[in-house]
Amino acid sequence: MSDTTLKSPPVEVQAVENRETVVRGWLVPAIIGSALLMQTLNATVLSNALPTMARALHEDPLRLNLAITMYLLASAVFLPISGWAADKLGAKRVFVAAMVLYALSSAACGFAHSLTWLVVARICQGAAGAMMTPVGRLVLLRTTPKSELVGAMSVLTMPALLGPVVGPVIGGAIVTFADWRWIFFMNLPIAVVGVLLVIRYVPNVAEQDVAPIDWPGIFLTGVGLAALIFGFENLGRSAIPPLAVAGLFAVGLGALGVYWRYATDNPGAILDLSLFRIQTFTASVVGGGFMRLAMGATPFMLAMLLQIGFGMSPFQAGLLTFMSAAGALIMKTTAPPILRRFGFRSVLTVNAVITGVTFIAYGLFKPQTPHVMIMAILLVGGFFRSLQFTSLNGLTYADVDQGQMSRASTMSSMAQQLTQSIGIGLAAMLLHFFMVMQGQHHMTPATISPAFMVIGAITFISLAFYVRLPKDAGDEMNGRAPARA
Questions:
Q1: Residue 81 to residue 147: CA distance in whole angstroms
Q2: What CATH superfamily classification does 17-208 receive?
Q3: What is the DSSP letter of 277?
Q4: pLDDT tens-place string over residues 37-58
Q5: Do residues 263 and 273 lie in contact, with contact meaning Cβ atoms separated by under 8 Å?
Q6: Distance in angstroms (rounded) separating the CA atoms of residues 44 and 94
Q7: CA-CA distance, 266 to 21, in Å (whole number)?
Q8: Fewest beta carbons within 10 Å, which of 212, 257, 270, 310?
Q9: For residues 363 and 214, what is the distance between their CA atoms, to the nearest angstrom?
Q10: From CA 330, how far away is CA 386, in angstroms rounded?
């Protein structure tokens, strides 16, 4: 028997290793992503269904917007607690409990017969959602080697990218052909299958020693985030007076400013500000925030352009914008090799320009633009936007120690939710501004298109963070040979 034969691992060992690689690299991220799928689907489907729900509940559509706002407020309050709870109680246990609570809250929303009932159920749903996303990501971070993390993140983020695109199609179909309550009931089978798969396949993540819970920090961050999100949600709308919106911003910024002073050099603070001393984390969270502004604004503005500007039905517009999802799906198999070949700095820098240009291109659509051309541009935009966010999500944790993973996951989730809320509020404000500037009383393509130009231009600010990254930034994440000794 040759030496090669003696040194070769047994077939059974290779089979086990291959199975573990598949589970860790594809199955576990896909299972955790099912939680993101519930959240993103609900968010986009609900926006399209509000007029129908308002008629069924005998409420004004503007009042029914509370169902969206209160979800965001509850999520903002509970997000900072998620990392502490995962470390204290165990990430897998908290993740399963959050999925069960989200499903029960969805059922309560579906059975709602009044606005009060719906709002209370949405608050519970928001609290569960705040625990699911960062804790699910934390499970992945603690069970996946850094060299495999980019590929795992590609699978994990797929539902988050698909939800805003397929949501209008599903929402239009539900509202047109079925009862609006199925918007919430469709979460139940996803949750049941997800919980069973988590219990079966997702590894346990052990509890860790943590400091006592930081109640002052939770209060300050909860008030600050809730006030800012509520303020941005009401930008460009007439639901509350402009003075009240300004007051919300003042309270939010004041509370976060007090927290900043309180948390500086405080190791027990609920949010770890020392993470921003890590260049790769700052580039991803702060620099990537300018990209996520556009991500939050684009589904809303595309819906306005295609439905109000071009007169399409929600179902027609949803079918058209589905091409963005197709682009995102194509990208998922190509992101890891692209990052291995060119590195994070080069990919983020070049791709930021391409992504910004595609956002601006959306503003050039006209009613007479061939649908084939619109679909082609949306396909390209979906591909490069998905590549950008996959790269950002991987870079976030490139230089974060294992002991800081839970706080990094919480901080990243909080920043993403805040910037996407800012994007929606900024889009509403821009649409209102261009209507007033052009003397229009209703939205037209001429008032919507310039908003795409502004949002697209804002994304280029992120380049200032990417070009300053070291050439070998994040090399451990994408399997490239480290350039530094």
A1: 29
A2: MFS general substrate transporter like domains (1.20.1250.20)
A3: G
A4: 777 777 767 766 766 777 788 8
A5: yes
A6: 26
A7: 39
A8: 212
A9: 46
A10: 9
pLDDT in tens, 301-339: 887 788 788 888 767 777 777 777 777 777 767 777 888
Upper half-sphere CA count for residue 427 (Cβ side, 13 Å): 28
Interval 86-138: pLDDT, tens: 888 888 888 899 999 999 999 999 998 888 898 899 999 988 988 887 788 77
Confidence band, pLDDT 50/70/90 cuts, at residue 60: low
The pTM of the full predicted model, rounded to 2 decimals, is 0.74
State the Cα–Cα distance between residues 378 and 425, nearest whole angstrom.
Answer: 23
Same fold, 17-208 and 275-478: yes
How many residues appear in the chain?
485
Q: Which residue has the tokens 């070009």?
A: 467
Alpha helices in 178-311 (DSSP H): 182-185, 187-201, 215-233, 242-263, 279-282, 288-303
275-478: CATH architecture: Up-down Bundle (1.20)
Closest CA to 191 of 119, 122, 120, 98: 98
Domain ranges within the chain, ordered by starting residue: 17-208, 214-269, 275-478
Structure tokens, 282: 């700052």
Task: Give me the sign of the Cα torsion angle 241, 247, 248, 253.
Answer: positive
Q: For 432-473, give the DSSP string.
A: HHHHHHTT-SS--HHHHHHHHHHHHHHHGGGHHHHTTS-TTT
In this predicted model, what pLDDT tens digit does every residue of 214-231 receive, in sequence order?
889 888 988 888 888 778
pLDDT at 6: 45
